[in-house]
Amino acid sequence: MSDSDIDDSSAPLIEHLAELRTRIIRAALAFIIAMVICFAVAGPILDFLLIPIEKTMRSLGNPNPVMQYTAPQEYFFTLIRISMVGGLALAFPVIAYQLWRFVAPGLYKNEKNAFLPFLIASPVLFIMGAAFAQFVVVPLAMTFFLGFADLPSFVGALVTNGGDVTTATKDTGIDIVFNGKVNESLDITLKMIVAFGLCFQLPVLLTLMGKAGLASAHGLRSTRKYAVVGILTVAALVTPPDVTTQLILFTVVYGLYEISIFLVARVEKKRTAELRAAGVLDEDEELFSEFDKED
């Protein structure tokens, strides 16, 4: 191979690397700008994220819920964390657009038509998962933990006072009071939001795998028992150690798994029809036929 051949073959690679660098720089600038915008309103965002714990504390009889921080820099870095997560969410459309502009020239028209809907569906599903966590799961988790802290002392006082509720609610000893830290309370909320947002990506992931031929509806059906074990394991790892939130996450993710099976089956049906129209498959031949035999 001559030197000119080497130069000609390396030119496209250099162009691709330059294009990749441009896209990464634009995505990083979008993230930084979005992060600055979120930092400007990080206080209201923090108040919004702490609404579940505030409502729980008020429902348990605290008329003036207070959160504290115990280090001078703690509140500042809490706002930085909020800004980073919010900046990533706000800049995601720009980041996704830069990703699309980088990979689109190498895709066929049908591949572009297949990939673009998933690029749009992914942030929508993440927002749905995050909203579900914020408005349903986190309030249940806060109610469980804070309510559980009051329950033993209340029941013990009932037993001591012969079942007299009026007496049981009076001060009979040391009061155990919840003095919540801002960063620790925020950790629970952010973990739930990220966990449910990512779990809601399951239909997108499995459907893309179905389009690529890496997964089939029959294969997903036959691995249900393994999926159940995997989902239960994930629920135990990413949620607080209470049965309620774990069951909610399991129910939601398993429902998304069943929806994914339906979507993959539709993808297979469409691909089968296209291959038959192109003469690749016979009328009585099925795509993934080797996987479709029931055990």
Q: Strands, helices and their partners?
A:
Layout: H1 3-40, H2 42-49, H3 51-59, E1 67-68, H4 74-103, H5 109-160, H6 165-168, E2 180-181, H7 182-199, H8 202-211, H9 217-222, H10 224-238, H11 243-277
Parallel strand pairs: 1-2
Helix pairs in contact: 1-4, 2-4, 3-5, 5-7, 5-11, 8-11, 10-11
Structural account:
This protein is mainly α and 295 residues long. The chain is built from 11 helices and 2 strands; from the N terminus they run αααβαααβααααα. It has helices at 3-40, 42-49, 51-59, 74-103, 109-160, 165-168, 182-199, 202-211, 217-222, 224-238, 243-277; strands at 67-68, 180-181. It has a two-stranded parallel ribbon. Helix 5 packs across helix 7 (182-199). The radius of gyration is 26 Å and the shape is flat.
Q: Give the topology string: H per helix, E per strand.
A: HHHEHHHEHHHHH
Overall morphology: flat
Largest sheet: 2 strands, parallel
The count of strands amounts to 2
Radius of gyration: 26 Å
**Main sheet strand line-up:** 1-2
The class by helix and strand makeup works out as mainly alpha
Mean pLDDT: 77
CA(first)-CA(last) distance: 55 Å
Figure out the total of helices. Answer: 11
Which spans of ≥5 residues are poorly predicted at pLDDT below 50? 1-9, 151-169, 289-295
For this entry, what is the oligomeric state of its chains? single chain
Beta-strand residue fraction? under 5%
* Residue share in helix: over 70%
